[in-house]
Amino acid sequence: MGSEDTQDDAESSDSSSERDRSSLAVPIWLDRTAAWAMRLIVIAIALGGLLWLTLQLRAVLIPFLVALLVASALRPVAAALERHSVPRSLAAAIPLLVLGAIGAAAGWFVYRSTASTLESDEVTEAAVRERVEDWLMGSPFNLTMSQIDEGERSLRSWLSSGIGSFGPEQAALVVQVVGGALLAAVLSFFLLKDGAQIWTAITSRVNPARADSVHRSGQAISGTLAAYVRSIALTGIADGVLIGIGLWLLDVPLVLPLVILTAFAGLFPLVGAVVAGAAASLVALVAVGPSTAFWVVILTLAVQQFEGNVMQPLIVARQVSIHPVVVLLALTAGGAIAGLAGAFLAVPVVASLIAAVKAFSAEMEVGGDPPEEGVDAPSG
Fold it and tell me: Within 10 Å of residue 254's Cβ, how many Cβ atoms?
């Protein structure tokens, strides 16, 4: 009898212990949510660290990415020259020199045309001042001469303070930009000359089971960057044509130089269109009058909106095979993180990563899971 009581007591004790443990057990949904939250936190920390490292190394990364864009776009030309028995170094240098010569010639043409127009009798300081004063004193502004003089003094003070604020920080920025441009030019030459050999050396140190996939990913990146350069070139040309037609209809001088300036400014998303539009508005102001300059501003804003919301997402997305929403988000995020350079490089970087992942994944689906092998030791 005593043994049965003892057994019952033990069973009741075990039951109560199980009930206690079950009451303390974490629900399955909460356990899974916590696991996913921990993974997301780790990923966010890793991405934050990568972003911090990228910002610290942007003085090197930005010229390298620009050089990669240039080399990817000019690689077909260099390859064609090599096929015609041109030495590799010369085949790499010729496209870069031609591109630099075209840019320099276009810049000189724009400068000389603008200077000759501004030196004419119709755009003297007195003539421009008279047109601006008549415009401001008329409807809808109806300003008095004293108000115009006060506004002119404030504008001159603001301009002088802006020019006079050039200090060590601005000088360092100029040096950094010039140095980055020179570094990008040198890197472009070496990537055109030895890019294939460098990539072969990199892939030779990859696990042989993954080497082909990595090689295909590299080809996808190169093709995507070249397509992106073509897309922004098409966008810049379209901007120039639209602006040129509008300026011609408004009878603004220097149409061809402004078209060239707009086309080149299209290489720099967002800011380029603003700079080109400001230049066109200034020419219209000094050569024709404030009313025409106002309509040029409206024209520039319309073309800029059409470019940013229609042309660039559709053209860029079609060339690099990414959704227009991704293009807009990449432009916005890149500009917020790294300014003009970030806006210029964000879309090709995102598009290249997407293309590389697709190429790598497609190769793995075709080839299946490779056997487990160790990574070969670097040779040499």
Answer: 21
Q: Are 40 and 197 in contact (CB under 8 A)?
A: no
Answer whether residue 358 is part of any domain: yes
Q: DSSP class of residue 121?
A: G
First to last CA, the chain: 85
With 70 as the cut, is the pLDDT of residue 286 above it?
yes
DSSP per-residue codes, 111-166: HHHHHHHHTSGGG-HHHHHHHHHHHHHSTTT---HHHHHHHHHHHHHHHHHHHHT-
* 45 part of a folded domain: no
CA distance 2 to 8: 10
What are the φ/ψ torsions at residue 252 (nearest 5 degrees)?
-90, 135
pLDDT digits (tens, 9 = 90+) for 202-242: 888 877 777 777 878 888 888 888 888 888 888 888 888 88
Q: Does the residue 25 lie in any domain?
A: no
- Total structural domains within the chain: 1
Angle at 110 between CA 64 and CA 262, to 5 degrees: 60
| SS3 of residue 32 by DSSP | helix
Q: Which two tokens stand for residue 216?
A: 């295909």
Asked whether residue 186 is assigned to any structural domain, the reply reads yes
Percent helix, strand, coil in the chain (nearest 5)? 85, 0, 15
- The residue segments making up the domain with residue 304 are 58-156+170-195+209-364
Q: What is the DSSP string of 344-359?
A: HHHHHHHHHHHHHHHH
